[in-house]
Amino acid sequence: MPFLPFLAFFQVRREALIQMCFNMGPGNLAKFKMMIASLAQEDWEAAADESLSSSWADQVGQRAVHIAKRIRFGEYA
Q1: Looking at the domain assignment, is residue 5 inside a domain?
Q2: Which residue segment(s) compose the domain that 41 sits in?
Q3: 3 belongs to a structural domain
Q4: In whole angstroms, what is the distance from residue 74 CA to residue 9 CA?
Q5: Distant-in-sequence, close-in-space partners of 24: CB < 8 Å, separation ≥ 6
Q6: Largest CA-CA distance found in the chain, in angstroms, rounded
Q7: What pLDDT shows up at residue 4?
Q8: 3-state helix, strand, coil in the chain (%, to 5)
Q9: Is residue 36 part of a domain?
Q10: What CA–CA distance (Å, rounded) separates 15 from 9?
C-alpha cells in the first residue's frame, strides 16, 4: 500500500475517509487500492472517481456522492 499522508490532507478530506471507513470498515476500505494510490498522489479527481466506481457507492447512493465531492474539492458538499 502506498504511503498515505493522511494528516497532511485538509480536514474535509480526512473526515470523508473516516466516514467511508466507519461505513464499510477498515478492511474493505483498504481494498480501494486505486483510490488509495490516487490519494497518495493527491490526485483528488481520480480518487473521487474511484470511490464512485464501486459497489459501495451503488449501495449507499447519495452518501457516496457527498463523500466524493468532499474528496474532489476539499470542501463540505
Answers
A1: no
A2: 10-73
A3: no
A4: 9
A5: 56
A6: 29
A7: 62
A8: 75, 0, 25
A9: yes
A10: 10
Amino acid (one-letter) located at 3: F
Q: What is the CA radius of gyration of the chain?
A: 11
Tell me if 27 sits within 8 A of 64, measured CB to CB.
no
26 found inside a domain: yes
Exposed, middle or buried, 26 (CB in 10 Å: 0-12/13-18/19+)?
exposed
Cα–Cα distance measured from residue 4 to residue 46, given in angstroms and rounded to the nearest whole number? 15
Query: Which residues neighbour 49 within 8 Å (Cβ) at sequence distance 6 or greater?
Result: 68
- Domain tally for the chain? 1
Tens digits of per-residue pLDDT, 28-67?
999 999 999 999 899 999 999 999 999 999 999 999 999 9
